[in-house]
Each structure stands twice: as structure tokens, then as C-alpha cells.
Design brief:
Shape: elongated
Radius of gyration: 21 Å
CATH class of the largest domain: Alpha Beta
Order of helices and strands: EHEHEHEHEHEEHEHHEEHEE
CATH superfamily of the largest domain: P-loop containing nucleotide triphosphate hydrolases
Largest sheet: 7 strands, mixed
CATH architecture of the largest domain: 3-Layer(aba) Sandwich
Structural class: alpha/beta
Strand content: 15-25%
CATH topology of the largest domain: Rossmann fold
Strand order of the largest sheet: 3-2-4-5-1-6-7
Helix content: 25-40%
Number of domains: 2
Length: 311
């Protein structure tokens, strides 16, 4: 669980993650401008990655102080899919940590307004865990005029802090990252009767099975399917003598399910967490980045992972 540190009392040692939902220009100015100026006063690098509306307001109200920002960038150019966007953030933050004791970021994920950008809510939730040790204040801006209600609800569930009048306060709707991920992943229904099922004891068997099972009209995804399945099977066989591999088609999605009888996953967020660049586990991260969606059921009796590949 992320510690809750409002601006002003923040000690600059770990992540403070605040979601700010705004509707009017004055709300943006009254929250973001003091946030930026406080960073300047504390000698912290201040980064702003936002949409055109927010950038225009800041340019108008900061005047010559705009040049003091360490970054002032258009958020529209940053989206490259959930995994690649978070990976870019992670690399930039690691670089900052090597150069500054603490910093702050005002970021507006404008891509949440797009259907293909909605997955970012999962990465915002996971940031509470994977970035917790980073010494920075993250002010996440969300425009209520542009974002649908479901996205705004996810903002409350994925940010430990929210702006409440005159100061940040604990967000009562906030959920633990694992609980949030379980709630938003594809619903887990029973395996259909027509599923093709194989038992594999080596990754090479899984690769062959995937090559044979993928329908002809989906062969363009063969590389993604084979590599993602390989990574999950490798993980499964680390804790189990065999893995069960099932495949079926569900509407537009080709579904791959890998089931094992191992001890369960140590952390269900791994598929969304950028791996350590030196020696971090990266199998789930790679599989999740190749698939269009994923779902997990895990416990002491074993783990089942489903990967979804659309046309």
C-alpha cells in the first residue's frame, strides 16, 4: 500500500500518487500552478506532460517561469500502448533518480479518452506498487469533459490520493492494485466444451501446439501467440511437472489458457510491471505486451493464465 503524503508535508522519499479530476479552467490553474511553483521553491525538477488545454493554461499563468520546467511536453505524442508507455516512463524516472533526490510530475494521460487507451487504468494502478520507492510526486490530471464515467471511476480506484478542496486527501474508493486488476480483467468463465487441450512438459511442445492450433485466418498473429505462450509455459514448468494448454475462439479473440499445479504466482502485477533492466523477471511482461488482454487465476493449488489475441 502506498503511503499517503500530501504536498507540503511530502518528505520527498517515496511516491505520492494523486488523481485530480477537473472540469473547468480555473480548477486546473488553482491546482496545477501551485503544484509547479511549490516544486520550484523546493528546488525539485518539475515535469509537465499534458494535453493542449492544460499546456495553454500553464503557459498563460506561468509566464517566464515556464522556462524553468524540466519537461513541458505534449501528452498526445507519448502514447505507444500501455506497456511501452509505462516502460518509457520507467526509464525516464530511473534516469531522474540518478540525477535528482526528488522531483514532481504533472501528467495528463489524454489517451484514456480513446478506446485503445483505456488499458492505461491498469498501469496507473500498478504504478502504486512498482514505483512506490521512487522519490517523486505524481499529479495525474483527468478532464471530466472528455473522459467517460467508467474511466473517471477507475481514476478513483487507482489513485491513493485525490484533491479535496484545499489539500490532497486519501481517496476512499482506492483499491489495492491486485484487487483492481482482478476486477477489470476479462471475466473468467468456464472453458468451452470445444476447446483443444494438450498436456506439455517442455516449451517446445507448446510452440508446436500453438502453430497447429492457430486458425488460418489469424496466422498474422502467429509470432505473438507462439512467443507469449512460450513465456507463460516456461514460467509454469518452473513450479510444475507439466502444464495444460487449452485454446479456443471466443468471438474475435483467440484464447490461450496455460494451467499448472504449482504454488501460485508470487505477484499478479508482474505482467504490468516493467522488468528490472539488469535481472528482473520479464516473461509475464513480455507475454502481456504481446497479447491484447490477459486474465489470471492463482492460488496455492496452481495458476491459470489466459491470453487473448484479436485479429
Amino acid at each position: 500500500m502506498t503511503f499517503l503524503r500530501p504536498t507540503g508535508n511530502w518528505d520527498g522519499t517515496r511516491l505520492a500518487h494523486e488523481g485530480f479530476i477537473f472540469s473547468t479552467d480555473s480548477e486546473v490553474v488553482e491546482r496545477v500552478v501551485p503544484f509547479v511553483l511549490e516544486g520550484f521553491a523546493r528546488g525539485e525538477p518539475v515535469l509537465v506532460v499534458a494535453g493542449e488545454r492544460v499546456r495553454s493554461l500553464l503557459a498563460r499563468h506561468l509566464g517566464t517561469d515556464l522556462g524553468r520546467l524540466a519537461t513541458f511536453a505534449a501528452a498526445e505524442t507519448w502514447w505507444r500502448g500501455g506497456h511501452d508507455t509505462l516502460l518509457a516512463y520507467d526509464r525516464d524516472l530511473r534516469d531522474l533518480r540518478a540525477r535528482a533526490p526528488s522531483w514532481r510530475l504533472a501528467a495528463e494521460p489524454v489517451w484514456l479518452a480513446r478506446e485503445d487507451g483505456r488499458e492505461w487504468s491498469r498501469f496507473e494502478a500498478v504504478a502504486n506498487r512498482c514505483l512506490d520507492a521512487m522519490p517523486y510526486y505524481s499529479l495525474c490530471l483527468h478532464d471530466a469533459q472528455r473522459l467517460p464515467t467508467a474511466v473517471l471511476t477507475a481514476v478513483a480506484r487507482s489513485h491513493p490520493l485525490t484533491w479535496a478542496g484545499a489539500a490532497p486527501a486519501p481517496q476512499p474508493a482506492y483499491e489495492d492494485p491486485i484487487g483492481f486488476l482482478r476486477a477489470v480483467q476479462p471475466p473468467w468463465t468456464g472453458r468451452p466444451g470445444g476447446a483443444v487441450v494438450d498436456v506439455v512438459t517442455a516449451p517446445v511442445q507448446a510452440r508446436r501446439a500453438m502453430s497447429a492450433a492457430l486458425p488460418g485466418d489469424r496466422r498474422a498473429r502467429l509470432g505473438d501467440v507462439v512467443l507469449a505462450t512460450h513465456e507463460i509455459v516456461v514460467n509454469a514448468l518452473r513450479g510444475s511437472a507439466f502444464a495444460e494448454l487449452a485454446t479456443w475462439t471466443d468471438g474475435e479473440a483467440f484464447v490461450v489458457e496455460v494451467t499448472d499445479a504449482g504454488p501460485g504466482l508470487p505477484d499478479e502485477t508482474l505482467g504490468y510491471v516493467p522488468p528490472d533492466p539488469v535481472d528482473g523477471p520479464r516473461g509475464m511482461w513480455l507475454a502481456w505486451s504481446l497479447a491484447d488482454d490477459a486474465a489470471v487465476r492463482t492460488g496455492p493449488a496452481g495458476t491459470a493464465v489466459r491470453l487473448y489475441f484479436r485479429r
